[in-house]
Amino acid sequence: MSTSDGIYLGRCSSGDATSGAERSTLVLGPSRSGKTSSLIIPNLLITRMPSVITST
User: Fold this and answer.
1) Is residue 34 domain-resident?
2) Segment 11-48, tens digit of pLDDT
3) Phi and psi for 48 in degrees, rounded to 5?
4) The domain containing residue 29 runs over which residues?
5) Count of the separate structural domains present in the chain
6) 3-class secondary structure for the chain?
7) Which of 54, 53, 42, 32 shows the shortest CA–CA distance to 7?
């Protein structure tokens, strides 16, 4: 998994799905659907970009 192209979002038929490196990314989903464990934490562990994470 590489974040050189931005935030890793998952896989699709044409390869890895990422957001742009200079783009904001909003993750929406119901409670306990794995947003933090499957997207946020893995990206924070490998990214070399500044990150601001909020939760409401």
Assistant:
1) yes
2) 889 888 888 777 788 888 999 998 888 888 888 888 77
3) -120, 20
4) 8-46
5) 1
6) CCCCCCCEEEEECCEEEECCCCCCCCCCCCCCCCHHHHHHHHHHHHCCCCCCCCCC
7) 42
